[in-house]
Amino acid sequence: MKSENFHNADHPLKVVVELAETGSGGRHKPVVPGENWRPDMYLIGSGRQFWGQIDFEDLAYPGSTQEGWLYASYPEDLSNHLVSGAKIRLISGAQDVGIATIW
């Protein structure tokens, strides 16, 4: 897909992130504010991938639920799907590390 078919969100999207516990394949360390955390992101329901970064104001520990901000870059045809209530599967390597829900 050409770069002109991609959009960057005009503003960050507020998300609630449920991080998987370490024993369930989640991270071993918390996500640190300013880490520029970029897991692979897949829109649940369609399985479509997009790119982005999630930032937290506080440490986000494995097994916790934390509010954060999603800075997204996505194919043009997904723009109507990144709405309040949409769920996003977060993957790092081959592990599911959490689920984000757009606020």
3D structure, described in words:
With 103 residues, this protein is mostly beta strands. It contains no helices and seven strands. The chain has a six-stranded antiparallel barrel with strand order 2-5-4-3-6-7. A hairpin with a 2-residue loop joins β6 (87-92) and β7. The radius of gyration is 13 Å and the shape is globular. The mean pLDDT is 93.
Question: How would you summarize the topology of this molecule?
Answer:
Elements: E1 6-8, E2 13-19, E3 40-43, E4 49-55, E5 65-75, E6 87-92, E7 95-102
Number of strand segments = 7
Q: How many strands, which pairing sense, and closed or not: the largest β-sheet?
A: 6 strands, antiparallel, barrel
- How many H/I helical runs? 0
- Give the N-to-C terminal Cα separation: 28 Å
- Oligomeric state of the chains? single chain
Helix content: under 10%
Question: What's the overall average pLDDT, rounded?
Answer: 93
Outline the low-pLDDT stretches.
none
Strand order, largest beta sheet: 2-5-4-3-6-7
Query: In terms of structural class, how would the helical and strand content be classed?
Result: mainly beta
Beta-strand residue fraction: 35-45%
Listing every helix as H and every strand as E from the N terminus to the C terminus, the arrangement reads: EEEEEEE
Rg computed from alpha carbons, rounded to a whole number of angstroms: 13 Å
Shape: globular
